[in-house]
Amino acid sequence: MSEGAYQRLWDSSHLILQELLDQEQPLLQPVPEQERQFFQYRLSSLYLYYLGLLRRFDTLYDQMVQPQKRRLLRRLLDSVAGRVLELKDDLVRADLCETHCLDQVLQDLKLTPADLEVPIPKYFMLEQSSALRDQEHMLAEILSRLEPVYSRRRFPVLHWTEAIILLQSAERARQGRLRATFMREIRKEEERDRKIQEEGQNQFNQDEAAVTVQKVWKGYLQRKRTRQDRRTEMEFIGMLPSPNQVEHLGIMYQAGLGEEVRRLRQLEKEEEFQLAMVKTYDSLRETEGPYIKEKMKEQIRQWFIECHALTGRFPDYPDESSGGSYLIFADKTPEQVKMELEVQVQESKKKDQEKSKGKEKGKKEKKKKKGKEAKARKGEADTTLKVSPSKSVPVINAGHEEYTNLWKNRYESLHPNQSFDSETLQVEKRKEVEQEIRIQVDELMRQELKNLRLAVDREEGRPSKAPKKKAGKKTGKKKEKDLTSDRSMDSLFEELIGFGVLKKSETVALKDFVGDCLYLGSTLNLANKLPMPSLFDVRQNVALYGVLRLGSPDIHSMAPLIRSILLVGPSGVGKRMLVKAVCTETGANLFDLSPDNLQGKYPGKTGVQMLVHIVFKAARYLQPSVIWIGNAEKNFYKRIPKEDKEMDPKRIKKDLTKALRQLNPGDRVMLIGTTDRPQVAEMKGLCRTYERVLLVPRPDYASRYVLWKHMIEARGGQVTQKLDISALAKVSDGYTPGCILQAVHAALTERRLLRLSKRPLVASEFLGHLAKLEPVHREEEESLKDWYFKTPLGKRRMELSKDQDAAEEAKLAKEKKRK
Q1: Where does the ATPase AAA-type core domain lie (predicted)?
Q2: In the prediction, which pLDDT does 201 show?
């Protein structure tokens, strides 16, 4: 695509954005409980539109070259991503569920399931590549220093029964190979003898031989034409991929080269822009700085004189926190500024009086008020639905206005080489120069005002008053005590790596967690059947809760704060893979606080406190960071089993909860727990520590179909018409993605891959390997489902479904009475 095409895409995106901003204001109005479905529908449609905008802005920011446009696009991209996360939070509160059935909304908006995919901005990894390389280099250096101490490799010790089985299998394989070679030679001799006998018996004349050859050849040609016509038809209707894979790969390669060239041009233009910013700033300071400074001083002195003439005294100088002299230059008269300052003083006095009155009142009145407020809030929550206030919408509005004022009607012919706009740059830098000079002028003029007051007080014989010092406000949160203030960060990293807490995560892309979406979710909801989430829904939730929040500090500050996630599902569904994918997509560092990993490390109460403190301190320093706890149920055991008593898995629980509370919106640190036995844990403690609980079920038919196809192709196999993937998906009901992967690896050996051209794959080759594995039984899945509906969100969802059932029954009863 050319720059003009990207500009047209930007223009059309802002038309959509304007429509969405117009729809934001009505959403703030509360909606009665009876219109819950309509409210969910509006939220869902808005969510899908913002997802489409996020995809567009990601493409534009990745491919546009002009540096000033890219800065605006970056703000728009981050704010739209923040709005997507806010709408997701509102959808969860409206739907009382982590997964949403949007198939009906997709159909109404004429969108496809691909539009549900959460796009991960490309700049997450592209712009952090240098920082990630530095971190990897630092960790590699520490590992190289620790290798002589910690990396003494030991050969794995086998039990004597396992060793015997290994020797027996090797010996049987050797004997089998010898026997197969011997039998192959016997068969060759027999075949040779049989051919000699047939040549003596069957003797054709010339005409019969010609007819036989023609029959075979014509049959072969006709079968070949039929296969070709069938394949052409299937390609035409889109049921088979194009055979011109080389041509397709060439086109994709050329497109990739074009994108890389544009990224290189972005770097060149960015360097030019950085140099121009420094030069423009310095030149403005030298040429216009003294004039701006003198003009500000004259205006402030004139304001002093006018206020003294009106009121008989000099005004109070505005604080730096309230804007300083900017209030004076905001096109206001001295009377208006004076009135504003007086109003601020009166408001502060009123607040102080209210606080003093509140302290004098008794505790009983406070309790009554709290009770009434709580009841009112509960009543409002039960009867109305509304969207929470947004931090992202004002940023989106400001970005949209900047686009409208600066770039909407800007023709590309003015800057054909995509360099920066010098006029716009001068306007921006002039504001920065004025801001810097204003701070300097404010300090000088405060001192000048103080001297003027002293001089006037001496003339009039008034005693001079000392300025009152404002008491600092106490913050609600206590600062965490630094237990390692005397230690360097390198020593902390070295200790964590040495104990195996800080690890290098495996590279796993989130798109490799394969699964299809739920196509009949709305139908099941209408029938009051709560559908299980699909693997596609799980992948989207992990992208929203984990990847988008950790990938950018701006998105993290705008999005609703989520500190922890719990992934619940049977063994083999891919929970650990999702943790690795979050680390890969965001470049996050992985800290392993699993009970099995901490056994025998940091003993005692002080040891646990030190461990948690070091981990969270290092995680903040190396952010983004993921703290992973495998077998998270062990930290919250109802009763500790005998085999786990030596481990003492509950020792970290209290300190972990305290450390999580200390995480603020600027800290890109996330706790992710994984468990397959949440039933053995205390529900209250588990749900208090993990803010979001995501259920990862066994795959449904659609996901199994996609899994089989993806895994066979990833292994190097070819999916032909002889391979019935639909049958494999039906037969593998109950098996996890891990089981399917094991079956594929066992069936597609290197030898089998070499013979694919002669003997295509069939479904029966996988069944024997699949039958040896243990599936997830329905009772286990139902047990996890029952546990999930005991969580706080699950309970509210069950109550909502009961209320809906009761309302439907009441409607039916009324209709029967009318009849």
Answers
A1: 565-680
A2: 59
